[in-house]
Amino acid sequence: MNTPLSTAGTLFYDHAASRRTGRDADLAPLCVAEPTLSEYFTDNAADGAVTAFACTQLKQIAASGKPILWVQDRVTQRESGKPFPAGLPAGLRLILVTVNRAVDLLWSMEEGLHCDALGAVLGELWGDPPALDFTATKRLALRAEARAIPALLIRRGGHPNLSAARQRWRITSLPARLDPDDNRAPGTPLWQADLFRARGRPPGQWVAGPGKTGVLLSHAVHMNDAGGGGLSDGTRHTPGPTIRAAG
Questions:
Q1: Which ranges in 57-211 belong to alpha helices (H)?
Q2: Is the pLDDT of residue 6 over 60?
Q3: Spatial strand order in the sheet of 167-174
Q4: Is 8 exposed, middle or buried (0-12, 13-18, 19+ CB in 10 A)?
Q5: pTM
Q6: Where is this region: Disordered (predicted)?
Q7: In this structure, which topology does domain 15-244 adopt according to CATH?
Q8: Cα(34)–Cα(18) distance, rounded to whole angstroms?
């Protein structure tokens, strides 16, 4: 499916094309996260897939040259570490802020959303602090929408309690693709992506991976397709081991 990319829009699997052709359509890239609040959860707080998924959504922001305000609380930083520049999308510029309290993280994110010089604001928050209530998430969502700046909140060790986030994802790691040069080595990473709450679009579950402009989504991935361009439906490749989205 050749769909033009929106600068600050999210493209999903083309169900209409699937109905027309009777098979899964080619994948649609998930570009820069929409200019609102999105939350990301993971079943394992140490799983790096959730960070990789969120950062891959920032590829177009990196290309724009605008920096990302990245705010971590100290517990998250101690448990999962600081961002590693070599593992981030090429050209991504960071302003890293470390805070002690959840209320300081939320304040920093909201203040960052006042700044038009930023391309996006990303926060990493541990657990379910009392400060992160519906009012706090509503303030972030409204501020992001008013300033047209994406706000991404990674919730390590947290639960999907009441929130005003427009999109809520659960991301987990999957076995990587085969490396094209060494079948004993990991290749392109794959993630299980579950959009369990969304505003303006139906939820869904996909196998996801990095593409040139953002995250690529599919309902089934053939592991022997080691091409570097991302994911595609399995109908164009020699049959081989397949990972399918849950559900």
A1: 59-64, 74-80, 102-112, 134-147
A2: no
A3: 29-30, 215-218, 204-210, 190-198, 167-174, 37-41, 151-156, 120-126, 68-73, 94-99
A4: middle
A5: 0.79
A6: 226-247
A7: Rossmann fold (3.40.50)
A8: 24
